[in-house]
Amino acid sequence: MTKSPREDVIRCEGIWKIFGDKSRQAMDAVRSEGLSKKEIRDRFDCVVGVQDATFSVGRGEIFCIMGLSGSGKSTLIRHINRLIEPTAGSVIIEGQNVNAMNARDLRAMRAERIGMVFQSMALMPHRTVRENVAFSLEVRGVPEEKRRRVADQAIEAVDLTGWEKRYPDELSGGMQQRVGLARAIAADPTILLMDEPFSALDPLIRKQLQTTFMKLSAELHKTTIFITHDLDEAIRIGDRIAIMKDGVLVQIGTPEQIVTEPADDYVAEFVAGISKLDLVTAGRIMQPLAQYAQAKGPQDTAAWPVAAPGDKLDTLVDLAVGTDHPILIAEAGVPLGVVTKRALLRGIQGREDSNQPQAEAV
Amino acid sequence: MDKTFDWLNPFASIDLGIGKWADGIKGWAMSNRSVIQPLKNFFEGVIVRIESALQAVPPVIMLLLLVLIAWQAAGRRVAILVFCCLVILGLLAPDAWSLAMTTLAIVIASVLLCVIIGLPLGILAGKSDRFEAGVRPVLDTMQTIPAFVYLVPVVMMIGIGNVSGVIVTIIFALPPLVRLTSLGIRGVSPAVVEAARAFGATPRQILFKVELPLATPTILAGLNQTIMLSLSMVVIASMISVKGLGNEVLRAMGRLDAGKAIVGGLGIVMLAIVLDRITQGLGRSGRERGHRHWWESGPVGLVTALIKRN
Ligand SMILES: Nc1ncnc2c1ncn2[C@@H]1O[C@H](COP(=O)(O)OP(=O)(O)OP(=O)(O)O)[C@@H](O)[C@H]1O
Ligand SMILES: [Mg+2]
């Protein structure tokens, strides 16, 4: 992970959410006895939505939460702007404890600092596109003239200019979701919460919207929590990914870490089908030069193609097809290691060829 | 009790004195007339003013006005229907129009009070399960208890006349408005309310900007029901000396006068059709009207279009 000092915009500490009438007792029992999810359901008739979630998101980062249906993603993201109260734990946004805020500050924070896109879009059917987009400004009492200007900017940013006066049900699903996006960014918040914004759309439109979103996010530099149940989407969009299973954050890491070092079988199964070409870097699959030389004897590397440790497998494949030599990995002119064809193929498969020297010796 | 207690028929030998207890309330009401009287006078004044306003408008002007309102609210076809109904109403008898206006005044006063009382109650019931659970049996009672049961105590307390008539009408006509308001509020998609919350709306803003607008079609259906029920009470109300079409029917019954009965009865029906169609038109959602604003259609739309052209 990057070691550079970064500012945490969102920090969640030990969030638990237990649904049910006896959630407090259930929580106490969890604390004292460490009950499992099933025991909680049997003894207290409560459903565990989120179990001890701790993570932080840095400024400008896109943090993806990935998990199957019912794993508690929506429940978790609703804690960030306190749409639901945690049973235990706290959410801290830019140093402020959200759970300790009074109603007024909370509303101000929701309207001005957090934009949210909903899984179900949740547009207001009785309001035009423009009125929907300007909603957060309207509730803050921004004058009509300014509301209109700001809303139209947001509408333009999602390519919906010309549709301002239409009603949501006159728009296609993809357009509605773009209205949702425009509504979230209209008040120029620092934080975006996106709950499966593109899940209900067909693959082509989804890709389009992902592109729109990534462009916008690069321009606007917003701290984003992005929920998805699609690992490809998470990898495409996320700076870091958290994998969620049954309310637990199983693993948090960069896409490359998730794909190459899955924390458990569950994650491993998930990432098995993922293309490594754009994810895994040369540095991860290379064999140190000294080790290679030991096995093969000193080599003349003059004719070998050269790549940097940060280059993706995709680049290495391009280099490899043009030559019979292995690829030399060098940084700033200093040779570091070697990627053989075999290691490259294994890398694409997602398996690390750790027994390479022996295998080559056979 | 002088009778011996009979286990097989215990009820005959137990007297909880509920009848006397109710009589006690009546006595209390009669001794507190001085408190009730000013209130009564206030409402009487309101009703009289509504009636004299309605009577002051010449029938032709009133007819045109109602037709225009119908056109605006429900479109051209309904306007034509309303026109026909009103003409029939006027032709029924020389004094039919004036009687209808008297009845209309009572209905308007009742419905206004129903809205003032029922809308907040309905909103509360829509927001709170507890309140809904508490108010529901009361509404059931109001709707099912025969009017004659409360006719007597109301007259005892307030005396005969328009105000009693309005109160009796409200008791009968209020429930659907409360019920349907509650239903409408409950029917608003929780996702949309949550979105409003997520964007920082106050509970008040959520109510006025999201819940009420989205519940409006249902609430208007309730209003429509309330108006219809108010109209259906006019005959009973006329028993406590409320004038108007209902009184015609009542008098016709007393004298077996078929002609008068037809005037009263048909008059009520015509009025009912007019009010029903106009309020139903209001209740249609904007979507059915092609998402146009109300001022973009009907006579107002015509006028604005004409003004724009010039
Ligand atoms: N209000 C609630 N009351 C009781 N249980 C709830 C409530 N909301 C969510 N749950 C439970 O919490 C769990 C997680 O639900 P959640 O909606 O967070 O899943 P999700 O990961 O968003 O799934 P999806 O991808 O389908 O949206 C589910 O088992 C659900 O039954
Ligand atoms: Mg969800």
TrEMBL record, chain A:
Pfam families: ABC_tran (PF00005). GO terms for molecular function: ABC-type quaternary ammonium compound transporting activity; ATP binding; ATP hydrolysis activity. It catalyses: a quaternary ammonium(out) + ATP + H2O = a quaternary ammonium(in) + ADP + phosphate + H(+). It is an enzyme of class 7 (translocase). Keywords: ATP-binding, Cell inner membrane, Cell membrane, Hydrolase, Membrane, Nucleotide-binding, Transport. InterPro entries: AAA+_ATPase, ABC_osmolyte_uptake_ATP-bind, ABC_transporter-like_ATP-bd, ABC_transporter-like_CS, Gly-betaine_transp_ATP-bd, P-loop_NTPase. GO terms for biological process: amino acid transport; glycine betaine transport; response to osmotic stress. The keyword Hydrolase applies. SUPFAM superfamilies: P-loop containing nucleoside triphosphate hydrolases. It is found in: Cell inner membrane. Residues 30-271 form the ABC transporter domain. GO terms for cellular component: plasma membrane. CDD domains: ABC_Pro_Gly_Betaine. The keyword Secreted does not apply. Its EC number is 7.6.2.9. It is a peripheral membrane protein. Belongs to the ABC transporter superfamily. The complex is probably composed of two ATP-binding proteins, two transmembrane proteins and a solute-binding protein. This is Quaternary amine transport ATP-binding protein. It comes from Pseudogemmobacter humi. The lineage of its organism: Bacteria, Pseudomonadati, Pseudomonadota, Alphaproteobacteria, Rhodobacterales.
UniProtKB/TrEMBL annotation, chain B:
SUPFAM superfamilies: MetI-like. The gene is proW. GO terms for cellular component: ATP-binding cassette (ABC) transporter complex. GO terms for molecular function: amine transmembrane transporter activity; carnitine transmembrane transporter activity. It is a multi-pass membrane protein. Pfam families: BPD_transp_1. Coiled coil: none annotated. InterPro entries: MetI-like (IPR000515), MetI-like_sf (IPR035906). This is Glycine betaine/L-proline transport system permease protein ProW. One of its GO terms (biological process) is choline transport. PANTHER family: GLYCINE BETAINE/PROLINE BETAINE TRANSPORT SYSTEM PERMEASE PROTEIN PROW, GLYCINE BETAINE_PROLINE BETAINE TRANSPORT SYSTEM PERMEASE PROTEIN PROW. Its main location: membrane. It comes from Pseudogemmobacter humi. PROSITE patterns: ABC_TM1. It comes from the Bacteria. It is found in: Cell membrane. The keyword NADP does not apply. The chain crosses the membrane at residues 52-71, 78-97, 103-126, 147-174, 227-246, 258-275. Belongs to the binding-protein-dependent transport system permease family. Keywords: Cell membrane, Membrane, Transmembrane, Transmembrane helix, Transport. Residues 100-279 form the ABC transmembrane type-1 domain.
